Amino acid sequence: MYNFKFADIGEGIHEGKILEYNFKVGDMIKEGETLVVIETDKVNAEIPIPVDGKIVELGPKVGEIVHVGETLALIDEGDENETKVNDKEELKEAIPDEDDEAGVVGKLEVSKDVIASANQDNDIQVNSSRVLATPVARKLASDLGVNIHEVNGTGEHGRVLRTDIENFKKPNSESKSQISRISIPETKVLEGDRREKISSLRRSVVKAMTISKQIIPHTTLIDELDVTELVNFRNDYKEKAKTQDVKLTFMPFIIKALVKAIKEYPVFNSSYDQENEEIIYRKNINIGIAVDTPDGLIVPNIKNVDQLSLFDIANEVERLAELAKERKIQLNALQNGTITITNFGAFDALSGTPIIKYPEVAILGIGKIMKKPVVVNNEIVIRDIAPLSLTFDHRIIDGADGGKFMIAYKKYLKDPLLLLMSVGV
Asked: What residues contact 184, with CB distance under 8 A and at least 6 apart?
């Protein structure tokens, strides 16, 4: 009998709501077929089954909550798999499955990425440096900034429990990564007030923004740029792009210019490892685009954007935005972003000071492009002006470096031909 559990699919997801089962008890199911759709605070995840067999029992009912490590289905694999079952029982004895975590999902649509084989699981648990801990303990450690490798687990086989994290205290309370607990005063409810439960996506945004502001010292530079040439170029080629089934907005140009600037200043495509006091320079440039949805903010990212053409970027922006709004975005599109762009202009706003998406080190804000009178060659003329804001992590990026990056970015954005000169970027 195969006990199929809800895996840790990453991105801090610890629970989800059962939306629908595609099979019922007694049905035969094949490896790779989608057993269940689960609504999480980030995506609606289609969970594929990793084995062939007959469904003996299903987990929580539709509408109920399932937590990481809980059973989604019991699968009868048949007599021919008796040896495999015995192998699983031996593994279960070596590593107790109470509060256990399944493997991290790499791609939701690929079944073998959901749960590895018994031998692979054994190698991971025994031979790697990954700490044996319950999902609740991992989440609490992340929330409190506790290095889980330093915590002595009191559970079976040294497993770190929630109580171990709660009881853990750094000597002299001087841990660089420790996040202090803040006593939050009670929010009073007055007569006539109305309470409304926030959505799971909004809850995720609350957590992400709070962590970012607690950990990263934000600094913002605000500037504006004459983008008249860009506006004219885009207007000239907008109709031609339609013949190639491309919706040419300003965003692809904004992304192209950002890639160019990153090539000159790669620290803006990095993360800061505070525990080891090291800067991690990212190999890939995966630029996130903040998308406003009816349920809250979602930030999918375009992978390896430096390898895409302007039209390729335009298509990806439109595709990811639509998937995000329809809550059909795959989890891998939300993972491993390296820097983010937010478009204030889409909401008729001039500018703003955005919050960095942790663990990235910067976020670029673009305001509404407006016609303004400016002085050019000692004459007052009407030009198209774009407000810009660059917010960055002041721990590893100084104001002077932020200014240099902004100068490079403006150089590329104001001249669309300069953007298109170099192949691949």
From this structure: none
